[in-house]
UniProtKB/TrEMBL annotation, chains A, B:
InterPro entries: HTH_LacI, LacI/GalR-like_sensor, Lambda_DNA-bd_dom_sf, Peripla_BP_I. Keywords: DNA-binding, Transcription, Transcription regulation. It comes from Streptomyces oceani. GO terms for molecular function: DNA-binding transcription factor activity; transcription cis-regulatory region binding. SMART domains: HTH_LACI. It comes from the Bacteria. This is LacI family transcriptional regulator.
Length: 353, 353
DNA sequence: CTGTTAGCGCCTTCAG
DNA sequence: CTGAAGGCGCTAACAG
């Protein structure tokens, strides 16, 4: 059924070893021989047997990219950038490496995350890229630490993007994070500067790193301004989706009708919150300011255009991809990418401010 | 370095074959033996060597999902649904199949598409799922037909979701499509029923199946209404993104200032078009109606909420996933999923209509 | 139910 | 620069 290396060798009148060498391209072969082999490959429609190759070489060209939610553009953009950085990788020696960059959707589930890592480990993946926040459950973190170490010991490169290492001082993984704390702090500071004093927060899931960092940044700004009263009351939690934003804003508005601003866990949540605000007959930003986080492409298209914090997603993804294939050498320590406040039309001074 | 099946066998005091059998679970093994083996696996932290396994068995558990743009929620939703349908697959005999469902981002590039297929073919993938429209270039279609046949001949299941088969009567691939034509036709009919007579269209890329079908549906509705004049002039083309919608709407509005409605290639394009309309000082839907296609989750959050055509993305993805792993038997012929008109607030009768 | 025996297709020293 | 040979780790018949 399948044509093998040996068939090609026979056809080209050379040994299997020679065919292997021209295919890999990492070993000198006389040009005429090369041509002959290539032609034979053409004629026979030969395709390398990956499993056999990986078995013999004890490595594979698979690179796994794990994301929490593939339907969320945040992850899509990051993963897309990483994937194309990996695909266009020039390779170590100039020879194009045909890496198979694939993305795996964990749905944010820890079990799923571990399962995918094991599957990737089975395949002897060349690298694994974990994108986005992690669950802060001790048991899971322990399991992750162990698994990542196993992976690293097995020779697969591990890079984390947008999440901290599950355990300190683990030199085997390279880490790339966003300054979620700083970004959130700056955003809330902006609102405070406009004159807001009652700022609600629709935060993300309690047990997730990213959500915690953003909320902490928000609160740090509040503390900076001496506002410590009612903070807990003006915070609600929920998943990173639109309904959470809607429900969260409703809850906040009923708990605290005097609210003049709402910061959301991300742009999508902000959209939901904005809808809730509008449905209560309040204007944005006239009555209530609303702000997001991430600066997804759609943020500029909301009405009014969303004030948010821009995260360098494309840059981060590309960089993570390059780190994964070794095109870029790992930094000494964790690398933190800056977040930038983007003020648009959804925030303004409070009514009567 | 790596612990192998033989190590586990030695530890458990059984033969390698037995270990293999308990791991695969598809062969009777005495319970006590089973336990012993499982314990040895635990103790040794053994993980199966995928390449070796695939080589020996001549199959792998890899399932590739190819998408045109991973940052586009249309593909994200579809891919996510497929992936979870594959992951939760109960397997043929009740034993859980640990399929590794991965998504590959082609960026819409034909070369990339072919490259990924070859890579997947190398891995002897169990199935390949092609999601979204295809390029209608004869050379590429020929290449795809050949490649897909190779894949199918090699034993990998091929399913197309949202795209027609590259060549007719190819029984080796199973096809699942959306009724883009019917949906577009219904949408334009809705606009016509409201009284619109000058309807612009910001269509998708000319050479893509989906774009062609939607445009054809739109025009069919126009013909139904006896409106054939100026159709070409009221059509512009562009990629499936927001800037294309913005630019397209600007162009249409300057070509034909009397336009009272715009239908877009998809929801994202519609967002851009809406922004352009607003930026010209026109109101939606008061002066110009705007409609999208797909009904992405965000469509309901635009202001005004977008009239669009709903495509059953989750259902389609899940079904495609099940077809890919063989949980659902392939239909006799191509399966076409219905599209449903969703009327919201972005369409209304034309001014003075 | 369990052990034995051959490969699966390729890569990689080692000679020539 | 090219060929020969051994083995990567696992599975799949066969026996028993």
């Amino acid at each position: 059924m399948a044509v093998t290396l040996a068939d090609v060798a026979a056809r080209a009148g050379v040994s299997p070893a020679t065919v292997s060498r021209v295919l890999k391209g990492n070993y000198p072969v006389a040009e005429p021989t090369r041509q002959r082999v290539l032609r034979a490959v053409e004629e026979l429609d030969y395709v390398l047997n990956g499993p056999a190759s990986s078995l013999a070489a004890a490595t594979s060209d698979l690179v796994g990219i794990l994301v929490n939610d593939i339907a969320d553009p945040f992850f899509g953009i990051l993963a897309g950038a990483a994937q194309s950085a990996i695909g266009t990788s020039p390779g170590a020696g100039g020879a194009r490496t045909e890496k198979l960059a694939v993305v795996c959707n964990t749905g944010g589930s820890p079990e799923c995350e571990l399962t995918y890592l094991t599957l990737l480990q089975r395949q002897r993946a060349a690298a694994v890229l974990l994108v986005g926040g992690a669950l802060e459950d001790p048991a899971h973190q322990r399991a992750m630490t162990a698994k990542l170490r196993q992976l690293a010991d097995g020779g697969t490169r591990v890079v984390l993007c947008g999440r901290p290492a599950p355990s300190r001082d683990d030199a085997s993984v390279t880490v790339l994070t966003f300054d979620d704390h700083g970004g959130a702090r700056e955003l809330t500071a902006h609102l405070l500067a406009l004159g807001h004093r009652r700022i609600g927060c629709v935060a993300g899931p309690e047990e997730r790193t990213v959500a915690r960092h953003r909320l902490a940044g928000h609160r740090a700004a509040l503390v900076d301004a001496g506002l410590t009263e009612g903070v807990e009351r003006m915070t609600v939690r929920g998943p990173y989706d639109r309904p959470a934003g809607y429900a969260g804003a409703c809850e906040l508005l009923s708990r605290e009708p005097e609210l003049t601003a709402i910061v959301a866990a991300n742009d999508t949540v902000a959209l939901g919150a904005a809808a809730a605000v509008r449905d209560r007959g309040l204007r944005i930003p006239g009555d209530v300011s609303v702000a997001g986080f991430c600066d997804l492409p759609s943020a500029v298209d909301t009405v009014p255009a969303l004030t948010t914090v821009r995260l360098p997603l494309v840059d981060a993804g590309a960089r993570a991809g390059r780190l994964a294939v070794g095109d870029e050498s790992a930094p000494a320590g964790p690398l933190e990418l800056a977040a930038e406040l983007v003020v648009r039309d959804s925030t303004a001074p409070p009514p009567g401010g």
